[in-house]
């Protein structure tokens, strides 16, 4: 098996952000497996799972979902017992 792929992590990240329409995203995890970059990103209270072909650069899969409220930073959460207006 050839492990000399033409797409490095930075390029895969850039391609994933372009596909998702993101200008900035935090890279939560990255793994090269089976010829694909498996990237987990977060931005604007959303999480993104993206698969990028490490040879061609094709974005083969993209899924996104909201970050659970329980995982928001403490300064962005409402105090307990307080109702939103």
Treating each run of at least 4 consecutive H or I residues as one helix, how many helices? 1
Name of the CATH class? Alpha Beta
Helix-strand sequence: HEEEE
The spatial strand order of the largest sheet comes to: 1-2-3-4
* Largest beta-sheet details: 4 strands, antiparallel
Helix/strand class:
mainly beta
Question: How far apart are the termini?
Answer: 59 Å
Percent of residues in helical segments? 10-25%
CATH topology: Nuclear Transport Factor 2, Chain: A
Describe the overall structure.
There is one protein chain. The chain is mainly beta. It has a single domain, classed as Nuclear Transport Factor 2, Chain: A (Roll). The chain is 14% helix and 38% strand. The chain has 1 helix and 4 strands, in the order αββββ. It has one helix at 9-20, and strands at residues 26-33, 36-43, 46-53, 59-66. It has a 4-stranded antiparallel sheet with strand order 1-2-3-4. A hairpin with a 2-residue loop joins β1 (26-33) and β2. The radius of gyration is 16 Å and the shape is elongated. The N and C termini lie far apart (59 Å). The relative contact order is 0.19. The mean pLDDT is 87.
SSE topology sketch:
Blueprint: H1 9-20, E1 26-33, E2 36-43, E3 46-53, E4 59-66
Antiparallel strand pairs: 1-2, 2-3, 3-4
Q: What's the short story on this structure?
A:
By secondary structure, this protein is mostly beta strands.
Main attributes of the structure:
single chain; 85 residues; mainly beta; Nuclear Transport Factor 2, Chain: A; 4-stranded antiparallel beta sheet; 1 helix; 4 strands; 14% helix; elongated
